[in-house]
Amino acid sequence: KQFVELLGIPILWWSVRAFHAADPDTHIVIVMNPSFWDDWDIIYNELPEEDRRIPLQLFCGGR
Fold this sequence. Notes:
Strand order of the largest sheet: 1-2
Strand content: 15-25%
Helix content: 40-55%
Number of strands: 4
């Protein structure tokens, strides 16, 4: 559900933007099931360049 788009941007990314806007020094970690990583790569690469500059880490997890 987090990959569903709202105004052309995935819901997950609205959250990332909000955390980054509140505190650019915040360490953002995204944990997702590896079965979603291919979808993530596609979505991430379609984001505006400015958004791709937001530092974050991606880890395996979930079911």
